[in-house]
Amino acid sequence: MRSMGKRLFFLLGLATAMHMNGQRTxxxxxxxxxxxxxxxxxxxxxxxxxLKDAFDDxxxxxxxxxxxxxxxEVNDLEQAYFLHFxxxxxxxxxxxxxxxAGIHLGGYTAFDIDASDLLEIGENDLKVEVTNAHDDxxxxxxxxxxxxxxxxxAVYLEMENAVHFQKRHGADNIKIDALLDETLKKGTVQIHxxxxxxxxxxxxxxxxxxxxxDGHPVYSTQFSIVDTLQHRYGLNLPKxxxxxxxxxxxxxxxxxxxxxxIDTYEHQIGFRKFEANTSxxxxxxxxxxxxxVNRHQDFHGYGNxxxxxxxxxxxxxxxxxxxxxxxxxxxxxxxxxxxxxxxLGLILWSEIPxxxxxxxxxxxxxxxxxxxxxxxxxxxxxxxxxxxxxxxxMNEIFLRMVFDRLDEKTxxxxxxxxxxxxxxxxxxxxxxxxxxxxxxxxxxxxxxNETGIADIAMVIGWNLxxxxxxxxxxxxxxxxxxxxxxxxxxxxxxxxxxxGADPRIRSEIPKKFDFxxxxxxxxxxxYMKQILERDYVMGATVWNFADFASEFRGDAxxxxxxxxxxxxxxxxxxxxxxxxxxxxxxxxxxxxxRDSDRHDxxxxxxxxxxxxxxxxxxxxxxxxxxFERPQWGVSSQTIYLREGKNVxxxxxxxxxxxxxxxxxxxxxxxxxxxxxxxxxxxTDIEFLSKDGTLWIPIKNTSxxxxxGKVSMKKIATNIRGTTNDPIYQxxxxxxxxxxxxxPEGDYEVLLHFSRFGNENELIFELGKNTNPLRGxxxxxxxxxxxxxxxxxxxxxxxxxxRILVPSAEKLEVKANPRTTISLAGISIMRLR
Length: 832
Ligand code: GCB
Prior knowledge:
Elements: H1 4-11, E1 23-26, E2 29-34, E3 41-44, E4 65-74, E5 80-85, E6 88-89, E7 91-96, E8 99-105, E9 111-114, E10 122-131, E11 150-151, E12 155-160, E13 164-165, E14 167-168, E15 171-172, E16 174-180, E17 186-196, E18 203-211, E19 217-225, E20 228-236, E21 249-256, E22 261-269, E23 274-277, E24 280-283, E25 286-287, E26 290-295, H2 308-320, E27 325-328, H3 335-344, E28 347-351, H4 363-382, E29 388-395, H5 399-404, H6 408-432, E30 437-443, H7 447-451, E31 459-463, H8 476-486, E32 492-496, E33 505-507, H9 517-532, E34 537-542, E35 548-554, E36 558-561, H10 574-583, E37 590-592, E38 598-600, E39 605-612, E40 616-620, E41 623-627, E42 634-640, E43 644-651, E44 657-666, E45 676-680, E46 685-688, E47 694-695, E48 704-707, E49 711-714, H11 725-728, E50 730-735, E51 737-754, H12 772-779, E52 781-783, E53 786-788, E54 798-815, E55 821-823, E56 825-830
Parallel strand pairs: 26-27, 26-34, 27-28, 28-29, 29-30, 30-31, 31-32, 32-34, 38-44
Antiparallel strand pairs: 1-12, 2-3, 2-4, 4-10, 5-9, 5-12, 6-11, 7-8, 7-10, 13-17, 14-15, 16-17, 17-20, 18-19, 18-21, 21-22, 23-24, 24-25, 33-46, 35-36, 37-39, 39-42, 40-41, 40-43, 43-44, 45-56, 46-47, 48-51, 49-50, 50-55, 51-54, 51-56, 52-53, 52-54
Helix pairs in contact: 2-3, 4-6
Bound molecules: (2S,3S,4S,5R)-3,4,5-trihydroxy-6-oxo-oxane-2-carboxylic acid (GCB).
């Protein structure tokens, strides 16, 4: 009989593949130093050494060698010992008691080191040399995410009987299939495995299956083996696994020598039948549109060394959003993520990090072998999860080649290597993971069709950014239709789509690359319409569930790719709530699209958007508006604000308050002492900085005029030394004169400058770091006819110049007649 404790274990759905009879010790206390910094630190694993420098202002982050050391006790040398590492980025060399014990390449799969022959009674030393230095033989070579170095997942010392389930590729060598017949009425469980049994003792195996909900035994049998485990049995009317009802069974395989249990393997299994074809995805004989998100593993404040509870919360949130599908891009993630997907009911696409490019020349063979080893481990470690259906092995693999513009010979070599590797990985995946679907993600370029690589995997995923990196939102549908027309037999999925959005930014005229949440919503709404209209599109996963670290990026926040539906700290953006309203129709969602509690504007008109999947009532001060259920999860209403506080409320049909919002309205003016006006130039966005300062675009105020052929200039690059990048990432250029009407008074004026890259050189091009002529000219900037000395500035830097202007009725910023000025912003404060 199972004990109550055990049953509870089932109920919580926490059971996993593990040994119940051996001992497992978490090794969390370590000392650590690096090649660069020899100071010894005491740290706990999970750990990464790039937590600071991946986010600081210096370009790049340290990629080198870190040395971890710890000790552990052993008092019985008759047992077998393994060190189990769940993830070390990216190369780990292990030494036990000063002796070399093994090496592992690749940062995203688990591995075991057999320590049995190197241990001593008493204290044992363990040293792990880890490097995340670039290595042309280890994927990924290049990718849009930060390769945080360190032992960033758990490490265990495992003690086992000398006879145990064999360990291979970082997992117990046991493969389980839970299959269904055509009618879904008959299930079959197939088990293949092997046992390390040096003396060839005769052993007993007991296989038992329990209902995961009530712990009730469903099946149990015993048989004898020596070292090969093969078992198959049928089950009538099994409960099915699906995203809607993720019914699981708990399987245990106990190994005994006749007298006692010596090893136990446990795993949750689920019966499901699936198929991907040109009319879509079929689960348990029903069509199912796969909709969900991609997920990276890192998290604000932790890098890639993220506590498990936070990781699991991600999965719960993804499910709560209404997703039935999750792509673990671009690498295998913690094993608990796969377990959570099993119990929550999320279909998984999981892949290895062969991203952006494959090497040519001498490195290719090793790269190819390492990729094959990774896919082998990836499959061995995750095959048994019912949630895992799609297995991938390449993402946008021709991206670098297309952008690097190489000569023809080099291109030929790359294409030939890439095709060879794709063919090998496809073959390997099909062989090792029958009953799964192979998949590959492409970027929107015809090279994948032309080279034939798009015909290798069973399903093709397109990463499409129309309306962001290129084209328009509604270019998506025609692209898909053409692909479908040209390749009617190719099952197609959208593996990525998304745009950057920053909650500090608000726009009334959403545009691509403005990083406004309004544009993010417009884009996702447009995409969903086009996706749902097309049955042949199997599904789609948003890029990305959460913002994630990508050191070289400069979105509105430096070092972060901001395409998340939730921020890096997982606070939701509006589009997250919108997906919830659209995908989770069983629950009522009625709330404001909330983008700024302030309305500093010369016009009191404001367009209010409401995210809803039910009929609702909007109350704005004394006015009321009734709405039917919006077809696409959002409705809007223009309202007229009063100066000061405005109270907005939402009610459902029953009259229950579902959300409220106070908006403070102020006409931008400088009527009172201490009043400020902060103008964000070269843009239509409003920006709320961390210190609560609201920066408004010129269009929000009526008292500014500009002279010159003025235009806007915008970049998305990290401006060093600030997290207020949106102020400095846009400029108004070619200003000959800018006049601000102000009430008579004394003013403090702050002129804000930034300098873009060389190719974008803009006039004021200040001081020492630029050519002298332009520097000279730039010195000739006047405010109310007083010459202003402009501070020197390097590329992608910013600066401000403070000026006091007494007794002014207007502020006139003027350029030398031979030139024009570029300004990123102006802040004005009334002193008298
Ligand atoms: C892609 C890549 C992904 C990037 C994303 C982006 O297509 O697969 O790794 O992060 O685009 O945001 O540019």
